Amino acid sequence: MQPKFVLSLDGGGSHLLIQLSVLASLENETGISVYDLFDMVAGSSSGGMTACLILGRTTSASEIVQMIQQDKLLENMMTGHWMNRLLNRLHMRPKYSGVSKSRVLQRELGYLRLASLDKQIFVPCFNLDRDQLEIVTNSCPVNFLLSEIADACTAAPAYFPPVQMEDGGWRIDGGVGMNNPALGAYLHALKIWPDHDVKVLSIGSGWRSFAFNGSSARAYGGMQWSVKGIASVILREKMMANARMTEAMLGRHVLYINDHLKNYGMPDHMDSANHPEYQHKSLEIGRLWYERNRDRIKKWLSGQPEESMNIA
């Protein structure tokens, strides 16, 4: 029986271009779009937005890259009044207002809703009212707008404000609890397709790096640790541990691709690719990742019928 293929995309802000570049390289070599190749797309944070775009627009990674570059999608999402930036430095306001992000996503996804999807979706969001992580899937009791799902799952604290969805609930980026959704997506896929072999291609967006002066850190209080990004360190370590655990548990069922951004001289703050120079760099990193993992990807795809594959 033919396997069911799941695509899982970590969160990572503007570094989603790295993931899209890996996928565009896969499309170029196979002649198959990611929409046609995968039966389910899972994504946290920016990966969730990508999932909504791929499944809602029934499109390819290459087309999304083109849209980001031509329509300046990221630049238009990450805009805000100068006062917001000033107050953000004082940890008093989000860096971006969120209005432009909502507007861009509404423009790109229109009035598409969950019920319109022909393939499976898996996107974590954190519900502030209920104090719990929620997973948006096709069986969600509320037929949410895809633009609203994409808006809520990218509401990263300190960068964007929470988003109120149609059911009245306020939500933020689900990456706070599940920034690597591969294992959750795999288990969800088993419930949907219990008689199929499920295979997960999990792609990260680059590990961030942090340096601390131990002597200075002895005097840090809560504010200093916050300024230094301790929350991001905790999130990274949770992601890395989760990725290792997922690989250990799922074995041949999962292929995880990721690396440290510092190895490529790429600024690692989440909105660094909000600039054409770093967008091109992100795309190049993705192509390098694909070439480096090309043989592993071929092996992972071995369950696909040969006549549908053009991979050399």
Q: Largest sheet, described in full?
A: 8 strands, mixed
Return residue spans where pLDDT drops below 50 for at least 5 consecutive residues.
Answer: 304-312
Give the number of DSSP strands: 8
Beta-strand percentage? 5-15%
- N/C terminus separation: 24 Å
Rg, Cα atoms, Å: 19 Å
Described by the principal axes of the CA atoms, the overall outline is: globular
- Helical amount: 40-55%
* Derived structural class: alpha/beta
Q: Provide a count of the helices.
A: 13
Helix-strand topology string: EHHEHHHHHEEHEEHEHHHEH
Mean pLDDT: 87
Q: Which SSEs are present, and which pair or pack?
A:
Layout: E1 4-9, H1 16-30, H2 34-37, E2 40-43, H3 46-56, H4 61-70, H5 73-77, H6 82-89, H7 99-109, E3 120-127, E4 132-137, H8 146-153, E5 163-164, E6 170-173, H9 182-192, E7 198-203, H10 214-217, H11 222-227, H12 230-250, E8 254-257, H13 276-300
Parallel strand pairs: 1-2, 1-7, 2-3, 7-8
Antiparallel strand pairs: 3-4, 3-6, 5-6
Helix pairs in contact: 1-4, 1-13, 3-8, 7-8
Protein traits:
312 residues; alpha/beta; 8-stranded mixed beta sheet; 13 helices
Structural description of this entry:
With 312 residues, the protein is of the alpha/beta class. It has helices at 16-30, 34-37, 46-56, 61-70, 73-77, 82-89, 99-109, 146-153, 182-192, 214-217, 222-227, 230-250, 276-300, and strands at 4-9, 40-43, 120-127, 132-137, 163-164, 170-173, 198-203, 254-257. Strands 1, 2, 3, 4, 5, 6, 7 and 8 form an 8-stranded mixed beta sheet that branches. The radius of gyration is 19 Å and the shape is globular. Residues 304-312 have low confidence and may be disordered.
